[in-house]
Amino acid sequence: MRKILLFILFFLFNVSKAYSLIEVDITRGNLNPLPIAVSPLFSDSDTKQELKNETNISKLGEKISEVVENNLRRTGLFNPLEKNAFLQNPDVAHLKPRFEDWKLIKAQALITGQVKFVDEKLRVEFRLWDVLAAKELMALAFTTVPENWRRVGHIISDKIYERLTGEKGYFDTRIIYVAEQGPKTKRIKKLAIMDQDSVNTKYLTLGNELVLTPRFNPTNQMVTYLSYFKNLPRVYLLDIETGIQEVVGDFPGMTFAPRFSPDGKKIIMSFAKDGNSDIYTMNLENRIVNRITNHPSIDTSPSYSPDGKFITFNSDRSGFQQIYVMKSDGSNVKRISFGKGLYGTPVWSPRGDLIAFTKLHKGKFYIGVMRTDGSGERLLTENYYQEAPSWSPNGRVLIFYRETKSNSEGKGFSAKLWSIDLTGYNERQVPTETDGSDPSWSSLLSN
Amino acid sequence: MSKSILLSSAFHALIIILTIVSLPFVAKKPLDLPPLISVELIQISEKTNIPFAPKAKKIIEKIKEEEKKLVSEQAPPKKIKKIKPEAIPMPDQKVEKIKQVDDKQNPEVEDTKVKQVSEFEKKEIFDPTNIAALIDKSKENLAETDVKSNKITQSQDKSLNNVGLTLSEEDALKAQIFGCWSIPLGLPYNENLMVRIKLKLKPDGTIIDSEILDHARMNKPGQNFYKVLAESALRAIQLCQPLRVPSTGYERWKDLQLNFDAREMLEG
Questions:
Q1: What CATH number is associated with residue B252?
Q2: 0.80 exceeded by pTM
Q3: Cα(A352)–Cα(A320) distance, rounded to whole angstroms?
Q4: Any CB–CB contact under 8 A between A378 and chain B?
């Protein structure tokens, strides 16, 4: 018995001396865009002819893959490879890619696809492949009317983006903005809308009245904006799908930046009553106005958190314009910006983790982000004049507008839309037909 | 009934006795306590407050004097006339050579044997008829050295077996993977998304097998971020192979675990 116990003890001691597995912590990586090969979507000659008759586009498959490629390139997270380097034909690659060939050109992901014309409808199928693991990651097919081919490209881009980054895409979206024309002192301002890739621009107002701060409803394709009618500010609601427009209300004094609540049932804005600017909400169902802040200082630019429980706004109650956060009933007001300079236009990220803002310091304008408690302030871009950041629906990219300085003769002034992602490296101008300001990003159309 | 109770209690008693007997720590030995030492606590000041000890002073002075004496009495090194050896001694002929020195003045017997006296002469006395023997010998020597070197590495390995990678080895591996790992930037920084991958490696650093330790989590609903991170980590490993592993100590790192954690990067 003693021997057995000794044996057990000996065994236990030996176990404690056993070989231990070496662990290495990898906490850093590179931010290089992922090399991706977008093989053109192939179609047989009959399909090509039929689609040409329908859409007047001879190579629709290639056009769709171009849309996907451009979308992915603009994110800054992907590096679509040069098509001339592809070794495998699109039709064969779609059936079974020769991964060695795609590895040779340093592709890590591959998109293949096919376009068909079935029952007067466009059928697009695509596959996403992991080249290094030599396996299929995703395969989907969409059927729609041929005129919708660009949207199919955007939806495919969204699916690929989501599969490779883990977060939802932002390609099947629109941007509404104020289109500007004419000299600075006599600007004609119209409400305009376009796809996020600057295609399909449409003008929603005629330019007779001044329009300001259009904002999308996060749940549907409704827009709220501010317009001056007989020099009085009016808040409007506009349904993009039907074109129906209605006046929400006339408000006294200076009214600023109406914005929807996350459920789309309320509008939050600031207006001056008895000379004092405070934050109010309006229930869109019963039009009841509710006062949220009551302070002698100027409170403006309110924005809800995505769960609707908090509101961020800017106020000069500390003596300088700073960013504050409060509960949605107006209680528990806390200042969160403490840096040097003035802070304004706070916008809560759809992901809920960050607040974007405009900062003015030493004559320069910055677009930045900070956490909702005010920590981790990061300034993403600096310029002579820029403001009004608006989040992409996935909370990764900010769109804003930037003005250039006019010379002594009053020429050279321009206002352009720009976008920047959270890394601060991927800054791009968003092309518009005319000058543009006050952009707002819609939610995903395919939701 | 009573019989079974008796039997049961007897067995229980037996088990208890056996346990007590077999457990070595149960048998208490009287503690062998060392005798108590009384310690006087004194206050520490800049100068010692211990009274002057003349006896101790005498002993110290005596030691000092003895040291001086030792120095002064030491004789100068004896001048020994250096005897220049005639040739570089060969390890095999050590005994013979001493004899030769003794008999050098008056050799009684004439040595007809061919002697190797230097490396240079060694070449001259090369016997072309005996090449095979020489080759064999060289082989033996090589084998000997090989065995020796192998022995050294094995012993080193044994000593390193329970040690992880050295800092430089770890840094080299990390630096290589940093270059290969494209972090999916859409991941949230405030979630625990560490991906642990166990690798089986060949001695040259190529991967025999890779296994995600929390593989089940990849296919759970709502774990898209984890899946994306795991796939990016696997891509990084594939892209990086052969991994930059140490040239020795294969037993140590043939199984390796890499923990991919992007929070630091994503937090910015």
A1: 3.30.1150.10
A2: no
A3: 26
A4: yes
